Amino acid sequence: xxxxxxxxxxxxxxxxxxxxPAPVKNVIVLIPDGTSTSLLSCARWYQTYLDPSRxxxxxxxxxxxxxxxxxxxxxxGDSAPTTSCYMTGMPSQxxxxxxxxxxxxxxxxxxxxSRAYQPLTTLLEAARQxxxxxxxxxxxxxFPHATPADCAAHTYARGKYGMIAPQxxxxxxxxxxxGGTSYLKEREQEYLKSKGYNLFLDDxxxxxxxxxxxxxxxxxxxxxxxxxxxxTTAIPSLAECTQKAIEVLxxxxxxxxxxxxxxxxxxxxxDNDAKAALVEFxxxxxxxxxxxxxxxxxxxxxxVIVPDHxxxxxxxxxxxxxxxxxxLSLQQxxxxxxxxxxxxxxxxxxxxxxxxxxxxxxxxxxxxxxIQPSEMTYLMGASDYANSPLSKEMRQNNLSMGKMLSxxxxxxxxxxxxxxxxxxxxxxxxxYHPHNKELHGCPTNIELNHYIADQMGLTGVLEELTxxxxxxxxxxxxxxxxxIDSLDKYHYRFxxxxxxxxxxxxxxxxxxxxxxxxxxxxxxLVYMPINKTFYVPKELYRYLLLK
Length: 547
Description:
Layout: H1 2-19, E1 26-32, H2 37-50, E2 63-67, H3 79-88, H4 123-131, E3 134-142, H5 146-152, H6 161-170, E4 175-179, H7 186-194, E5 198-201, H8 204-208, E6 215-219, H9 238-249, E7 256-262, H10 264-270, H11 274-298, E8 301-305, E9 310-311, E10 315-316, H12 330-338, H13 344-353, H14 359-367, H15 373-380, H16 401-410, E11 415-416, E12 422-423, E13 427-432, H17 445-456, H18 461-469, E14 471-472, H19 473-476, E15 481-486, E16 492-498, E17 501-506, E18 511-514, E19 517-520, E20 526-528, E21 533-536
Parallel strand pairs: 1-7, 1-8, 3-4, 3-7, 4-6, 5-6
Antiparallel strand pairs: 2-13, 8-13, 9-12, 10-11, 14-21, 15-16, 16-17, 17-18, 18-19, 20-21
Helix pairs in contact: 2-11, 3-5, 3-17, 9-11, 10-11, 13-16, 15-16
């Protein structure tokens, strides 16, 4: 009887194991920052205009639903708190990078006031620490910018790059490709080299010839130029960067976690620059194809494609098309913007640097239009046009040259925007799952995080690691003699003493020194100046007790 029971239990276990596929080996999350759902229609039609044989985006077969995305206290989300939620499972506030929000009187989700400013473990951190996976980040902004930072850093102020950049370095991400050579300081470069990283700074040839991790490849002092203006001999496409990252990350036998961002779709939408937004999104779509092709061939990779929020609310259809909209051909709709050869930001710079007598030629050369005298007078009223021939009294306008250009140029087209800011809308969701276990419907950003964590075999692990790695230093070192010194604007040093032992560590690094002997840690040591708190591993005090 006992043997029979054991056999039945073994059979039941085997049946359950067979019925529940193992966690996926690899995860690729692709985020087209600021992409409104309407932008998909615009981009699809623009692509068909350029190539009539291309009537679908690469992501189209994988669209499965929408995502409700918001901050902890606002329906219209910012990049930092919305991507934070995808990475940690907790929506946060504007400016917060994978950090627990402050409680307000208008929160949209439950917020525990006692946890304000606590760093939150990300999927990328958990993939490395708990599963031994390789990790990668690919983007077109500067590397400490909100979305890539959300994967590997923690702060309450997304603009504090001095706090963010070192965390991203000391978080030991295996592959980083994007912009921002000026933000990778000498100290961080030396650390990476000491850990065996290859550094390719404005060195596309070096990156192309590199076939193993770890490495960083950064281009341009800040963000990568818009692709409609980029020197393609010096700046690799987002698709190429994605391909290279997959090539080297896939060599890890435990798999990998990777985030790819089409960063500047959002930037173009903020400028109400439809042409730039469309080009950036189509470049992002090509990167999605690279990821999807790999996933289908690999058979053990989950691909998730989702914007963090909408921006600008780009549409085809504006006041110009109120009448006769149903008679407009695709060529009539697209031809004008196809003639726009540079971004509005670049054109703004050219206009401000040139004499106004040169303006007609600039508009003809770069936008294919004959500018009217009234339009020239209008642009001369730009708030940031220092050399305007108009008096200050005549320039009662608070718009920049770039924004005035968008109103003037796109007023000539059938494209429209409702805002220069973000929008309150559900964003699209596209997915590929090797076992057809995609998430459908209209989940929240919290539910999307939980889904990805579940598929990776990390259910409950993010919360567990947060409570292990990011604990208030007062709780960890209670009863010990310690102090915190400010080294400069962004760097702080913690010193603790017990008998003959002296323990020292610096903010935003991943190591601790005891009596001049260094020990590496799994997580970064985060200092939050706003509440004068170091967040450190729970067991860190034990290093003080070493003999």
